[in-house]
Amino acid sequence: MTLSQPYCICLRWTQNGEPAAADFTIGSGITALIGPSGAGKTTVARLLAGLQAPDVGTISCSDTLLYDTEKGINVPTAQRHIGYVTQDPSLFPTLSVEENILIASALDTAAYETLCAEADVTDLLPRNPQTLSGGEARRVAIVRALAAKPKLLILDEPMTGLDPKRRKSLLLLIRKLSIKTNTPTLLITHHIEEMLLAADHAVLMAKGQTLATGSIEDVIANPQTSAHLGIDDAGSIITATIISRSDGLLCADIGGQTIYLADDDEPIGSRLRLRILGRDISIAKGNIKNISIINQLPAIVQAIDSQGHEQILTLELCDTPHKLLARITEKSSIALRITEGIQVHALVKAVAVKELMTD
Amino acid sequence: MLTAVEIAALGLSLKVALWATFLTLPLAVVTAHFLARQQFAGKILVETLVHVPLVVPPVVVGYALLLFLAPNSGFGGWLESIGLSPAFKWQGAAIASGLMAFPLMVRSIRQAFEAEPNSYREVAETLGISRWQQFSRISLPLAFPGILSGAVLGFARAIGEFGATITFVANIPSLTQTLPLALYSAAQSPGGEDTAMRFAFLCLVPALGSLALSEALTRRAKAKAQQA
pTM here? Predict the structure, then answer.
C-alpha cells in the first residue's frame, strides 16, 4: 500500500494576530497531528477542508493550490474531496443510518457492503441515527466519510467523550479502515497514547507552528514533544522482533541489541512496537551487578535538554538505529558527570517495556 | 345559527386566507432559507424590504397593489386583457392578504432554518452533497414543524387582513367582503351592533385557533432542534 506521492501540506494563516504556518507531508496510513490545546490543530483541519479561510495566506495540497489570497483562488469544500469527522458525528437526523451513508457514497454495492461489514455497522443501517450510542454514531460517521471516497480523511479528536475501552477499539478500527480503503488519514489528537496506538507518522504542533515531523519514533523522541505535551509522557518508541522466550520473559531484537520484556503471549517472530517512558529509565556508568534490572543497554548521550530541575537525555543505543529518552534529576546528572558524547548504560526494567501493537 | 351573509363572509374569508397561504408559502420558504444561509452585501436592505408590509400602514400596501395591478395601470391592464385581473375580485383579496402575511411567515420559517446546527452543512459540504439534496433531504424536513407553524401564523394574519384588502378590492358583499370587512360594514350601519358583535366573534375563532396551533408547533420544533 503506497501512495503515488505523499500529500505535501503547506498552510499559512493568522492566528491571534500572529503569523502561523504548518508544513508537513501526509503519506499512506495514519499521520497523527499532535499538540496541546490551542496549538491550531483544528484550524489546520478546517483550513484544509475549506470550512474556514485564512485571513491571508495559501493552502496547497501536493501540487494543487486550494487557496491563495493573492491569486484569488478558493476551491470550494465540496470539490476538495477531503473527508472531515469530528467528535460530533453530525449524522443527519432526517435520514436513516443507511441513507446517511448512501447520500454521499461513491462506492459500488459490493464495496459499500464490505465497508459496512468491516466497520461493523451493517446491523445499524435501518436505524434512526438518534438512537445510536456515541461510539456507534462515530463509526457510522467515519464510514459515511470513507464512502465518499475522499483523497484525504481528517479525523479531529474523534475519540473525545468515549471511555478508554471504546477509544481503543475505535482507534484500531480507524487504523484498519484507513489501510483497507487505502485512504491517507490525518488523526488529530492531544493524547500521545492515541497517536502511539494508531499512527505511522506524526506532526507536532504548538502555537500555530509545526515543530517536528516524521516517523512516530522520531517525533516521540524529540524533546520538543515532551516540552509541549507534558514531561510525564516523555519516552520513546522502538520497533522490535521477538526472537525467543524463556523464564517468563520475551527476548526481542531491536537491531544490534536485544531487550527483554514481560511475556504477553506474543508468538516468536512477531514485530512489535514498544514504548519505554523516560521516567522508567535509570542511568549508570557501566554494568551493574546484583540488581533486578535485566536490560542494561549501552548508549551514547547525544543531547541534554534541561527542563526545570530535571533533564531529558537523548540516548543513542549503541549499534542500533534507536533512540531512548531518559528523564533524570539535575542532581543525578551532576553526580554522574553526564555530558554529551559520553557512554552510559540505560537501565530498563523488563516490566516497564510496554507493547503497543503488533504490525 | 349563522345567517347566509355570515356564512358567505366566513367561507370567503377561509378561501382567501387558504389561497393566500398556499401562494405565499413557497416564496416565504425560499426567502427564509436564503436569508438564513447567505451572507452578502446589502442583506440588510433585502431584510428591510421583506419586512415592509409589517411596519407600513396596510392601506399603503393596498394602495401600492392598486397602482400596479388595477386595470387602468400598465401591468394591470395587460392582466385585464388576458382575463386575469385580480382587482375587485377574491383573488385580489388573496394577493393582498398573502403580501401582508409574507413577513410573518418568513420570520417564523427563518428561525427554523437557523436552528439547524451549522455542523450539518459543513459535513454535507465535505461529503460533496449537492445544495439541492442538502435542502430537500436535510434542511427542509428538519425545518418542517417551523414551516408549518409559519404557515399557520400566515393564515391567521390573512384571516384578519383588513386595510390592504379594502383598499385593493373594495368591500363587495359575497365577492370581496371577508369577515373583517363585513364587521366594518355592520359597525358602520345604524343598529348593526349585534351583527357587528357576531362578526367579531367569528373573526376571533380562526385567528385564536391558528395562533395557538402555531405556538404549539414552534415549541415542538424547538424541542426537536435541541434533540438534534
Answer: 0.80
